[in-house]
Amino acid sequence: MCGIWALLGAECSEKHSEAFMEIVGRGPDLTVVSQVQPNVFLGFHRLAIVQPGHVASEQPIVAGSLSVVCNGEIYNHEILKKNSHLAEDKVKNGGSDCASIIHAFKTHNGDLRKCCAALDGVFAFVMVDEKYVYIGRDPMGVRPLFYGFDSEGELVLGSEVKCIHDLCDRVEIFPPGHCGTISLAGARNDIRFQQYFAIPTTPERMITINKQLILTQVREILVSAVQKRLMGNRQFGFMLSGGLDSSLVASIATKYLKQKPVAFSVGFGDSPDLENARKVAEYLDIPHKVLVITPEQCIDIVPDVVYALETFDPLIIRCGIPHFLLCKHIAATSDVKVLLSGEGADELFGSYAYMQRAPSSTHLHKEILRRLTHLHQYDVLRCDRATSCHGLEIRVPFLDKRFIDLIARLPPSFKLIADQMEKFVLRSAFEGWLPNEVLWRSKEGFSEALGKIDLGDVVHEHADRLISSEQFELRSHLFPWKTPDSKEEFWYRMLFDAFFSHKKMTNVVHTKVYRTAAWHMVEEKENCKDELTAVEKSLANDRSLSSGTLNYTTHCRNPECREKVTSQALESDPRTASVAHQQALRVVSANARSEEEAHNVRLNFPSKRTARRTYQNHARKAYPKADSGKIPECFKVREELRRRRSSAPARSPMSSRRNLKFIRVGLPFFSIVFGGAFGLHYFQQVRYDFRKIRAIDDNLEHLRGDLKESGLKVRNDVSIDTVYKEVVELDTDSWENIRGPREFEDLSGYERIKQNQKEVNAEARRKKAETYN
C-alpha cells in the first residue's frame, strides 16, 4: 500500500507539500516529490513490501521521457518485462513490479487502453512524458484515485481525498476500469477517458454450463488469485472473522506461504466469531491473535474512523470501527505488513440476506451488478482506508479480474437456489479445505458477529444521548444534501463536515447502497437472520411461504425460531418443510460422508425431487436404529408427511397430474406430429404433379414457336375430340388411288386433283350436315 500524488500546472509550494503529507501513513518508509516536466510534479509515499529498502524499488520510475508513480501491485510483471523490447537496465528503479507499466506501454506502442488491459493486478498510476499525462486505475477500484481542479485550471491527483481536498474546488473519483489522457499543451480539465474493463452483464445460458467444470474453474481460479497475491517478503497475516470468505482465503494461502502467517480477529468478549476463528486457526495450525474490544473504545474511535474513511455512511462506519481498531492493533504489536481479506465474495455471489430474498434470479443479478459497480465506494473503500492509515496493505483475492469474469458469467440461478445455502457453488468447490462447521456456516453481518452486544445499537444509543430532538428536527436545514435519516447518521455527518466540505464531494460520497433495492425494507438489517420478526418479513416478501421457510431453516442458528417457523410451514406445505429440515440437518450434521454424498447428488441430479429422495436414503443410513427420542427433526417431519399421505383418499390413475399432463400436452403433440406427416406427404405429391404438367405445357409452347418460325401452320385447338371428328367425317368408301408426281415431273396436275378432292369432301360434309339437321 503506497500513496501517490501529482500536481499539474503550478509550482509545488508549501501548501502543496502539507497536503501531500496528509497521506504519509500510506507509505511511511520513503517520501519523494520529483519534478518530471515543467510544472509537473509527482509525489510518492512508499510502503516497502517487495525488497524493502532496496533502491531499485523506489519511485518515480523513469525510462527516457516517461516517468510514472504507482500505488499497487502488478502480478504479471515478470511476463510483461520479458515480452517487452525495452531493456530493463534502461529503466531507472526498474526492479519494482510497477515498472512493468512502462514496459507494457512501450509494447503496445503507446496505446494506454491496451496497456491497462494487459496489467493483471490492482493499481492506480500517473505517468508523464513531454506531451501527455496518462492515468489508469484497476478494474474494481481496489486502489483509490481522486482528482480535482482549482479556479486557475490547476490539476491535482491523489490516493485519498484529504491530500487534494484543500487544493481544488471540486473532488471527483477517477472511475475504476478506466484510463485517461491529458494533453500538457491543452486545457488541464480536458481528460479523455477510455474504458478498458467492464463487468460482464450477461450471464451464460444454462445449456452451455457444465456444473462440475464450473466447480473446478471456481476452485482453480480462486487458488491462483490467492497465490499471485502472496508476492513479497514481508510477514503476511489474515483478517480472520471465522466466516467462509476469510477462512477460505486463509486456508489457500497457508498451503503456499513459506513463512507461517498470523491470523487476527476482533470482537466483543462474547463474540461467536472469535470462537469460530479460533477453530479455523487450529485447523490450519497458524498463530491466532485476538483483540477484544469494548463499546467505549468503539465510541471513542468514531471521529478517527470518519476522517480515515472519508464518508458518513452508517454501514461503512459501523463495519469500519472494529476494522480500524484491529489494524491499529496489528501495526502496533506485530511485524505483519500485508493482510489478506475475503472482501468482495458477498457481492459476487449475492449472499447478503436481503439479496437472497430477491423476487427472482433476474432481480438478484441486477442487484449484484449494482453492488459491484459501487463496491469501490463501500467495502473496498473501508478496507483500503482502515489499513493504509496504519501503514498496512490489504489484498483481496475475490476481486481478481479472472475470478470476477467467471462468477459474473454464471447463471443467476446458481446464486439463488431455493433449497440451498448462499454461496453454494463456492462451498461445494472447496469441500475438504475447511471444517464442515465452518464451510457450511451461514453468513453473518460483521457488526452482528461482534457479540451479543450489537455495535449498531451501541452507536445508536450514544447518538440518541448526544443529539437532541430539537437538533434532529433541523436536519433538513442543516444538511439539505443527503439529509440524515437517523441520529446516528446525524452524528457521523457532523463529524464529516468538520473535516471536509460536502460541496466539494457531492460525487464522491455514496450512501445507503443496500437500502435502494426494490424489494428491501429500510428498517431491516442487511444480514438479519435470527430474529423471528425478520423471518416473518422475509416470508411476506418471498416467492412463497414454503421457499421462505426453506431459506430460513437452512440458515437459522436459533433452534426455537427454526422449530416455530417450521411448524407453521408444516401446516401449509409439509413437503417443503421436510426438505427444509433435511437441509438444516445437513448443515449441522457431523456425518461427513453423508454430507459429501448429498452435495454430489444435488450437483449431479437436475431433478430436485430425485436429489431429495437420494439424500433421504443417505440420512436414513446415518441413523439406522435411532429411537423416537433421538430421531432427528427431519425424520419426524417426514413421518408426519407419510401419515398425512396415507390418510388422504386414494385417487384414480387418471386423476394423477402425470396422466392429466399427458392428455393436455402429450396427445395434442402427437396428433400434430402424425397429422402433419401425412398432410405433408399429400401436399408434396400434389406439388410434384403440378410441376410436371406445367413443365410439359412449357415444352409444347416452345415447340409451337419453332414450327411457326419454320413456316408450318400450327393448329392451336388440337385435341382428341377434334381429331376424332375429322376422322369420322372422311369418306373412306369412295376413294381413288392417285399417284404422286416424281421430283422431276410437273406438279400442276397433282395439285389440281388434290383441290378437286377437297371440294368433293367439303360438299359431302355439307350434305351430311344438312341430313342431320
TrEMBL record:
Domain Glutamine amidotransferase type-2, chain residue ranges per copy: 2-185
GO aspect biological process, one term: asparagine biosynthetic process
Main location as per UniProt: mitochondrion
Keywords: Amino-acid biosynthesis, Asparagine biosynthesis, ATP-binding, Ligase, Membrane, Mitochondrion, Mitochondrion inner membrane, Nucleotide-binding, Transmembrane, Transmembrane helix
Listed GO MF terms: asparagine synthase (glutamine-hydrolyzing) activity; ATP binding
Record localization: Mitochondrion inner membrane
PROSITE patterns recorded: GATASE_TYPE_2
InterPro entries on file: Asn_synthase, Asn_Synthetase, Cyt_c_Oxase_assmbl_COX16, GATase_2_dom, Ntn_hydrolases_N, Rossmann-like_a/b/a_fold
CDD domains, alphabetized: Asn_synthase_B_C (cd01991)
Membrane topology: Single-pass membrane protein
Keyword Nucleotide-binding among UniProt keywords: yes
Residue spans crossing the bilayer: 662-683
One Gene Ontology term, aspect cellular component: mitochondrial inner membrane
Keyword Chloroplast: no
UniProt pathway annotation: Amino-acid biosynthesis; L-asparagine biosynthesis; L-asparagine from L-aspartate (L-Gln route): step 1/1
The family this protein is said to belong to: Belongs to the COX16 family.
Protein's recorded name: Glutamine-dependent asparagine synthetase
